[in-house]
């Protein structure tokens, strides 16, 4: 089981990302170690070379002033003063016989060397070997001068730096692998929990939600978004079930009455004009319900957005008000329009007119005789507000969210015609125009306000 989990971990993108992180970390540590190594050694080598150059320049000047004998004397003098035995001097003839210095013989490894700077091993009488860095200088005909410095400390520092770099890179690699593996396991565990939740949801348990750790990291953000998506899906499914139940409930009555009437006509009764008219009315009611559902579905799908353009709401308000003036007069209602001038939005004229028509239709149906209906259009900064206020019974605050759903009717007695789809269509139109639909208290009555983004001059021109 554990081996299978490791194999699954090795195939994940998180593990591959961890390997890339480990490689980058090790390369960075290696580059840093190399920089420290070469910088430190370079500084020490330059300092050592500077001492040798100063020595050899001084001896060269001494040779020019005092000749070969004076050069030998100053070399022997410097050898005697060098208590630490760090300096190396050797003045030899053409065949390598020493004339002065602290090296008993000319190193054979330097016989074929033509470069100025040389590195060699000096052996003393006891057989001890010492690394030396030196410089060669030819003085006079057939004589050679070797000046160097003992670089045991420099070699020791080089070994320490190499071992430190090696151990540092190894330690960095181990720590990076352990840390990367722990991070990969943590990420894989979080993703496994999310995958387990999604599999349970696929199996039918829509109540499951992705777990949150409270860390507010990207995994929590992903889980929150998944949970929000699941909430939306659950709401949509609940809405679909509600729509299906409501369609069955609202259409069962007219279809049953239509079937009974057609059954009577099929039994041989002579059809009257009233019977046929009632059948047509029942069918119209069914078709009106289905047409309203199709219209809401098309609006919510965004099918109208391609035809959006700058629209002035003032002519729409005047036309719809004129259309319902006769119905308001018939019910002894006062229909008032308050317009502050042209108010332009970016949208579809027919959809906006349909939304206002639905609001006025509800206001006319539910406002008692002698009441007042007010249509108000105004612009507040970048917001266009279109509201319809009535003096009817209003909507309780606890039901204002519910009445925006399909087939929701507070009139349980069904005393007024309709299927409870009017405000659902208005809400769909408002959302497609990136606006808000607000229901408030008109004291008495209901005020419904559409807040839509108003078009700026540049947007309107576009």
Give your account of this protein's structure.
The protein has 462 residues and is an alpha+beta fold. It has 3 domains: 1-90 and 148-205; 218-300, Orthogonal Bundle (Helix Hairpins); 305-461, 2-Layer Sandwich (Heat Shock Protein 90), CATH 3.30.565.10. The chain has helices spanning 2-10, 13-81, 152-202, 218-266, 273-300, 313-330, 349-366, 422-432, 457-461, and strands at residues 87-92, 98-101, 117-123, 129-139, 143-150, 309-312, 334-339, 344-347, 372-380, 383-389, 436-441, 446-453. Helix 2 runs antiparallel to helix 3 (152-202) and helix 6 runs parallel beside helix 7 (349-366).
Task: Give descriptors for this structure.
462 residues, alpha+beta, Helix Hairpins, Heat Shock Protein 90, five-stranded antiparallel sheet, 56% helix, rod-shaped, disordered C terminus
């Amino acid at each position: 089981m554990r081996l299978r989990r490791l194999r699954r971990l090795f195939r994940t993108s998180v593990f591959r990302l961890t390997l890339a992180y480990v490689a980058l970390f090790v390369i960075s540590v290696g580059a840093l170690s190399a920089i420290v190594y070469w910088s430190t050694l370079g500084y020490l080598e330059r300092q050592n070379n500077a001492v040798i150059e100063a020595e050899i320049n001084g001896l060269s000047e001494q040779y020019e002033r005092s000749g070969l004998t004076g050069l030998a004397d100053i070399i022997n003098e410097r050898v005697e003063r060098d208590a630490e035995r760090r300096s190396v001097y050797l003045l030899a003839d053409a065949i390598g016989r020493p004339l002065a210095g602290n090296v008993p013989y000319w190193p054979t490894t330097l016989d074929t060397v033509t470069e100025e700077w040389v590195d060699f091993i000096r052996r003393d009488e006891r057989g001890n070997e010492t690394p030396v860095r030196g410089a060669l200088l030819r003085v006079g005909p057939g004589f050679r001068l070797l000046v160097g410095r003992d670089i045991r400390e420099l070699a020791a520092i080089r070994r320490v730096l190499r071992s430190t770099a090696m151990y540092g890179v190894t330690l960095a690699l181990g720590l990076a692998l352990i840390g990367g593996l722990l991070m990969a396991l943590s990420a894989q565990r979080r993703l496994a929990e999310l995958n387990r939740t999604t599999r349970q949801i696929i199996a039918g348990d829509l109540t499951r939600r992705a777990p949150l750790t409270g860390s507010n990291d990207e995994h929590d953000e992903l889980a929150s978004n998944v949970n929000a998506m699941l909430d939306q899906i659950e709401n949509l499914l609940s809405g679909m079930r509600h729509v299906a139940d409501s369609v069955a409930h609202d259409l069962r009555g007219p279809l049953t009455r239509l079937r009974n009437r057609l059954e009577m006509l099929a039994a041989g009764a002579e059809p009257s004009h009233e019977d046929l008219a009632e059948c047509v009315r029942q069918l119209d009611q069914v078709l009106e319900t289905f047409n309203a559902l199709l219209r809401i579905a098309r609006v919510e799908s965004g099918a109208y957005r391609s035809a959006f353009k700058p629209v002035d709401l003032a002519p729409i308000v005047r036309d719809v008000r004129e259309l319902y003036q006769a119905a308001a007069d018939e019910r002894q209602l006062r229909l008032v329009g308050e317009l502050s001038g042209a108010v332009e939005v970016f949208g579809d004229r027919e959809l906006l007119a349909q939304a206002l028509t639905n609001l006025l239709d509800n206001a006319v149906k539910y406002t008692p005789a002698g009441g007042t209906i007010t249509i108000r259009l105004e612009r507040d900064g970048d917001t266009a507000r279109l509201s319809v206020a009535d003096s009817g019974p209003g909507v309780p605050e606890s039901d204002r969210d519910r009445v925006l759903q399909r087939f929701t009717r507070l009139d349980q007695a069904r005393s007024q015609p309709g299927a409870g789809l009017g405000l659902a269509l208005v809400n769909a139109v408002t959302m497609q125009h990136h606006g808000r639909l607000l229901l408030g208290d008109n004291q008495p009555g209901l005020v419904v306000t559409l807040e839509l983004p108003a078009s700026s001059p540049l947007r309107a021109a576009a």
